[in-house]
């Protein structure tokens, strides 16, 4: 009986994981279509950075980019910047027309690695206030996060506080989004 329950639980988890993996790119495409037809006023930039195939696969299929994009597409226009570089982050941070900023990729609490592998320290960038900031990178380090530097609402924002990021952190950040009205 116990083995049967474990087997069914494993099958259920594998099924849910498969749906999650497949839904990420589909959600991304739906989000772009939804955003183009949305007249709401919020504008969101989603920066996605990866330096190699391992990070690319992790970011595209396991990180929740599609789900995050779909969430923000319901609030207004989204711009997904794939293979983002430092200049993309600088542009979005300085541009006051962006209400929200989401960052995916390798980094720490106070920095982010762009798609060229350059470590970008948030404290060295010019910033403007953003309504929400979600920072899906690893944590750690002694520097301030973007959330601490320029998020208007820290309760609707997320940044990692641990040395290494985990699926638990990703799901916490995504849950934070989807639990909002």
What does this structure look like?
The chain has helices at residues 2-36, 53-62, 65-73, 86-94, 146-150, 167-178, and strands at residues 42-48, 76-82, 100-104, 107-108, 111-113, 119-121, 132-136. With 181 residues, it is of the alpha/beta class. Strands 2-1-3-7 form a four-stranded parallel sheet, with helices on both faces. The protein has a three-stranded antiparallel sheet with strand order 4-5-6, with no helix packed on it. Strand 5 and strand 6 (119-121) form a beta hairpin. The longest helix is centred in the first third of the chain and has 35 residues, at 2-36. The termini are far apart.
Q: Structural class, please?
A: alpha/beta
Beta-strand proportion: 15-25%
Tally the helices: 6
The neighbouring-strand order within the major sheet is: 2-1-3-7
Average the pLDDT over all residues and give the rounded result.
75
Spatial gap, N to C terminus:
42 Å
Let me know the number of strands.
7
Radius of gyration using CA atoms only: 17 Å
- Range of helix content: 40-55%
SSE arrangement, N to C: HEHHEHEEEEEHH
Report the sheet with the most strands, covering strand number, pairing sense and barrel closure.
4 strands, parallel
User: pLDDT under 50 segments (min length 5)?
Assistant: none
What does the overall shape look like?
Answer: globular
